Amino acid sequence: MIAPPYLKKGDTIAIVATARKNIEDNLQPAISWLKNWGLEVVIGSTIGLDKNQLAGTDEQRAADFQTQLDNPNIKAIWCVRGGYGTVRMLDLLDFTKFKQSPKWIVGFSDVTVLHSHLNTMGYQSIHGIMPVSSKATEDAKESLRKSLFGESLKYTVPCDQMNRYGKASGVLVGGNLSILYSLFGSPSAIDCTDKILFIEDLDEYLYHIDRMMMNLKRNGCLESLKGIIVGGMTKMKDNDIPWGKNALEIIDDVTKTYKIPIIYNFPAGHLADNHALILGRKISLEANDLESTIVFE
Fold it and tell me: Is the domain of 175 the same as that of 281?
């Protein structure tokens, strides 16, 4: 997988909206982070646009993103927030100039659309906090900075009681489970073969989690994986008649026949402690009875 050039002080990063609108005056904290890191900031034309839930029309969001893709002075594009809508503009984009001069695409949640599409093209991207992540921990911010500047990235977290022990290495893919599920069958679907899969989600019914995991199982994704990292399964919902398992228990049940290491409750996803993950990068993973370690190679 191709890694775009890492950032250096003086480089410029663009903040754009690819999905839900951002009409509040809420970007100053994130701009301050970037300035403290020695970066310059460009605010995209979609920031402030308001079309119902979305940041302008599909064409407006695509045009703004395209402008930043094609501008050689922009070294990274930081998506302002998730929600829904990135997939609506995806097919309006032309990645010709991006391929000539790749740059980092950063975000999570609905931005999984872009991560998955870039993965099929053979490019790495960064799953991490977004400009509106005002409650992000200092560790989460620092992990994004390290990812952008190409510094060593390694995570060690305490062992979770649900973990399945073992070692694995492979290219990291994934993101938001609902988005991954929605992309299967499309040209932007990830290839799970020999990969390590990261999944997280927010505000889903528990039976939906089961439905999506069964889809991954039946389409052959799970059986071809080398390992799984489960991030935050946040604010899950149940029906009046309970499903009977929580989100992690659902994942455990669907994956129980696969002899691969699985890390549960990794600090990434819709959490304040949302650690950056370089998707498309080869990692080494180890889970034992003391701790879990992820090393980006």
Answer: yes
For 275, the token pair is: 């650690």
d(CA 13, CA 68): 9
What is the SS3 assignment for 239?
A: coil
Residue at 70 is within a domain: yes
Among residues 11, 82, 10, 71, the alpha carbon closest in space to that of 44 is found at 71
H or E, element range at 223: none
pLDDT digits (tens, 9 = 90+) for 31-42: 999 999 999 999
Give the active site residues.
109, 200, 270
C-alpha span between 132 and 20 (Å, rounded):
12
**Residue 76's domain is classified under what CATH number?**
3.40.50.10740
- Cα distances from 219 to residues 112, 177, 188, in angstroms, run 19, 14, 15
- Note down the domain range covering 163: 154-296
- CATH number for the domain that contains residue 233: 3.50.30.60
pLDDT in tens, 215-255: 999 999 999 999 999 999 999 999 999 999 999 999 999 99
Q: Cα–chain-centroid distance for residue 258?
A: 24
Q: 118 to each of 17, 92, 169, how far by Cα in Å?
A: 18, 15, 21
277-279 sheet: strands from edge to edge = 40-43, 12-16, 74-79, 104-107, 125-127, 277-279
